[in-house]
Each structure stands twice: as C-alpha cells, then as structure tokens.
Design brief:
The complex is a heterodimer of chains A (112) and B (115).
Chain A lengths: L4 E3 L2 E4 L5 E6 L6 E7 L6 E7 L2 E4 L8 E4 L6 E5 L8 E8 L6 E2 L3 E5 L1
Chain B lengths: L2 E4 L3 E5 L4 E3 L1 E4 L4 E8 L6 E6 L5 E3 L5 E5 L4 E6 L8 E9 L7 E3 L3 E6 L1
Parallel strand pairs in B: 2-12
Antiparallel strand pairs in B: 1-4, 3-9, 5-6, 5-10, 7-8, 8-9, 10-11, 10-12
Classes of the chains: A mainly beta (112), B mainly beta (115).
C-alpha cells in the first residue's frame, strides 16, 4: 500500500515569493491534515479536511496561506508571499476510518 | 484549548537503560492519547494509542504507556532501550468531542541511545 506522498521534498525560495506544496493521501482516506513543524517543535495543525470540505482552518494564517482539496483527494497548500518565519517542515497526513494518522515525509521549506 | 506538555527536550541513555518520557495534557473531557515516533530521516509513525479500557497500553517494539486520568498524564516507558530507539518521540491528544479529529502534539522529546 502506498503511503502519503508529498512533493517537493525540499524547497528553497526567497522571501516574498510564492510556494506550493502537494499531497496525495492514502487511497480511500477521507480525512486530510496539513501540519507545520518548526525546528525543535511538534507538528501544529494548519487545516483539516473531511473529503473536500475544510472543517477546521482556524489555525491557518489566511492572509498568506491557502489550501484546497479538489475532488476530496489530492491537496495543495500555498503560501503567497512567503516570509522568513515560514521556514519549517510542512507535513501532510491522512486518516481513514480508524484513529491512526498516516504521515508523509514532509516538505522542508527554507525561506531566504 | 487543549495543550500537551512533554517534560524533557532531550534524553540521553545508554543501551539497556530504562526509559520513561513524560507527557501531560490539559483537557477536561474525554481524550484519545497517542505516542508517535520519528526515526532519523523517516516520517512520523504511530507507536501506541489509548482510547479506553486498560490504562496500560502496549505498542510496537516493546514500548508501553500508562494513562493516569487523575494526573492527566500518559507517560511512555520501555524497560530496556536499544540503539535503534534513537528517535524523536511525540505525545499527542485528540478530544473525543468539540474539535473532534484534531490531533494536538507536544513539542517532542529527542532520545539518543549510546551503544
């Protein structure tokens, strides 16, 4: 069974540039999460989807961050414009009918 | 709001030593509790979980955790660590009501096991 796939694995951009991350969850998993993990910290929830609906985006900085999950499968997370403080690992996770979250390898973003 | 506290930022042990990593959470309602592990270069994966029933739960690779409701704690233990246990360990809480589905993580504890 394929796991959660994220791309790119690494991204280096200059501040004020836009950036996008892509996530392909495990087939059949209706719930999809985006987390941000700063260095030395635990993952912090940005947004949670149930199918194509964003059911909790209270922690998403909406002035510069956006996300979408068209057709309730793949998801993209975008930052525009990026700031120095956005440097982090962006994690995608999915969950099927059980309680276990399956995480992708993450996208490590460096904003210069 | 829910929060999770992990007491130790970095723990260094020799092989065969016993391990206990502390985790406390703040939430007054019913919770589901988890420990996730991230081995070097790998993604986060579930180590063990507690939903209800026996407060002592056993996970993979000889790990166990005990839920003590009165202390709002869910400490992770292993009687004898191995070099391969070197990883970062995250405690996480998910409420059974309210923002159901949101998993809140602690800051993590990095475990280094010396061979």
């Amino acid at each position: 069974e394929a796991g959660v796939v994220q791309s790119p694995r690494y991204k280096i951009i200059e501040k004020k540039q836009p950036v996008a991350f892509w996530c392909n969850p495990i087939s059949g998993h209706n719930t999809l999460y985006w987390y941000r993990q700063n260095l030395g910290q635990g993952p912090e929830l940005l947004i949670r989807y149930e199918n194509e609906e964003a059911v909790d985006d209270s922690q998403l900085p909406k002035d510069r961050f956006s996300a979408e999950r068209l057709k309730g499968v793949d998801s993209t997370l975008k930052i525009q414009p990026a700031e120095l403080g956005d440097s982090a690992v962006y994690l995608c996770a999915s969950r099927g009918g059980g309680e276990k979250l399956f995480f992708g390898s993450g996208t490590q973003l460096s904003v210069l | 709001a829910q929060s999770v506290s992990q007491h130790n930022h970095h723990v260094i042990l020799s092989e065969a030593a016993s391990l206990e990593l502390g985790c406390n959470y703040s939430y007054g309602g019913t919770v589901n509790l988890f420990w996730y592990v991230q081995y070097p270069g790998q993604h986060l994966q579930l180590l063990l979980k507690y939903f209800s029933g026996d407060p002592l739960v056993k996970g993979i690779k000889g790990f166990e955790a005990e839920f003590i409701k009165s202390k709002f704690s869910f400490n992770l233990r292993k009687p004898s660590v191995q070099w391969s246990d070197t990883a970062e360990y995250f405690c996480a809480v998910r409420s059974s009501g309210g923002s159901q589905g949101n998993l809140i993580f602690g800051k993590g504890t990095k475990l280094s096991v010396k061979p």
